[in-house]
Amino acid sequence: MTPALSVLEKTFGYDAFRGDQAEIIETLIEGGDALVLMPTGGGKSLCYQIPSLVRPGTGVVISPLIALMQDQVDALTAVGVRAGFLNSTQDAAERRRVEDAYVNGELDMLYLAPERLRISSTAELLDRGTIALFAIDEAHCVSQWGHDFRPDYLQLSMLHERWPTVPRIALTATATELTHHEITNRLDLSNARHFVSSFDRPNIQYRIEPKNQPLQQLLSLIRTEHSGDAGIVYCLSRASVEKTAQFLVEQGITALPYHAGLDAAVRSRNQSRFLREDGIVMVATIAFGMGIDKPDVRFVAHLDLPKSVEGYYQETGRAGRDGLPSTAWLAYGLQDVVQQRRMIDQSEGDRAHRQRLGQHLDAMLALCETLQCRRVQLLAYFGEESQPCGNCDTCLSPPVGWDGTVPAQKLLSTVVRLQRERNQRFGAGQLIDILLGKRTPRVIEQGHDTISTFGLGADLSEQEWRGVVRQLLAQGLLAVHGDGYGTLVITDASAAVLAGARPVMLRREPERAAKATKRSAVASELPGEAVGLFEKLREWRAGAAREQSVPAYIIFGDATLRGIALSRPGSLAELAGISGVGEKKLEMYGEQLLEVVSAA
Length: 600
Ligand code: ADP
Ligand code: ZN
Prior knowledge:
The protein is of the alpha/beta class. Helix 2 (21-29) runs parallel beside helix 3 and helix 24 (528-548) packs across helix 26. It binds adenosine-5'-diphosphate and zinc ion.
């Protein structure tokens, strides 16, 4: 057995490497550099933790996520790895203790905030001990065009200059070609081995629904499929974060808000509760999430349309890092398109910038309106070819395409008539009222009941008309005017439709029967007789986590508890064979677990 495999088994309790892990680890152990692009949940941490344990000296991890260093160190300590961190949150005495441990060779791993390398004493400190390797986590932070740019990352090329013989590994879950190039160039990794994994996350079920009553839809998702599960709900604005969190709390769900407008102390308390307690729903703006490596987030819900496919994939990727079944759910409606187009029109920056934003939005809309497998489309966006997945909404209940040419013509000609005959522009609501032949006060007041398309669309419901408008917007056959009021205008492409020269294919939403399970997604995948034990094990874990004030997943992941619930081990030896049970944890918790099993 290789030393790497032996550490994997004894320390981490796993029996095999995944994907490229074995090769990456060998590369580093032999002193080579590596650049690793692997999706969230792919298992990046082991790629530098194991070589740090096998090579002499201390593995130095550069990470921008100061708030999470304590948890990372706790997770390593729990499996018997000697780890520490140095960042600005510590007092001098605490820092001193970690520095001494490093110099005395008593640390396997040391986490460093990038800004510490600006201080010359840090480099001098590192010289007084033995460096096993440098791991540059969240390496996409060197990208000046990305949204996570950290200036301190630019100077990380100094690592190679100052310590040319120490192997380096840079890791990221950002998949684009551009980021890949920037990391290679800025960190001088052209001689490194590059490991690019598939970015597929097969355990995440992708679903996108039309938005009708978003809060009720969200509630039904949580109640029917994810009751008691941890999840993240993303909203666009601080106000909707607050409103949504409050709504969920009123419905008896443990939900917490997180956005940049909250006091730093409240934010950090909410984040810490989300990590530590089981089954909390975090309602947040996209300010929340980077580096959150809680493995058992069972669902990520979006109540507003994300601005790009990249952002969407990164956010949904926070579900199911442990590989167990999870849901990525998005509700999206006409209003989202109008609002986002308006935000782009009003955004600062030059024309090229706005054009780029527009392209990002178009790609996101194409994903929402596709008749094909969501995953095929997502992966294709990142340059990866794949086959229909069988685990997304379009695969599970295929939407039907229908010929929407005539309704599109009716709608577009209403827009044209208002414009030409009366020099007016209106939003979707008024256009639909006209088509449905509704004599609302506004229709009467404007005399819109005399327009020739009045009442011509009574064959479709209001809901269906909203779907038509939304899809015409998504297809670029209708546009939001830049007046800031969300009024609609035709586009260059509309003319061909009005002239009957271009057919319009639309998507009809399939009826979706909600799954009738009330259990959490993880429990519901277990055979009935194992569910009771699984819940008992979760209770035990919650108690142990509280006692030691560490996040529950640091005690054991859901995947390990599932393994125990399924195999009902009767001895320590049997328990040791379960994935995720290493030597240290067996010693600490073995007897307690056997008791829980035999009592159930
Ligand atoms: P990433 O940093 O790439 O998002 P992590 O390193 O957090 O992923 O790993 C995700 C999960 O997979 C963790 O719970 C980890 O313990 C588990 N894991 C990683 N490698 C293996 C393996 N070889 N066998 C079993 N579980 C693994
Ligand atoms: Zn699919």
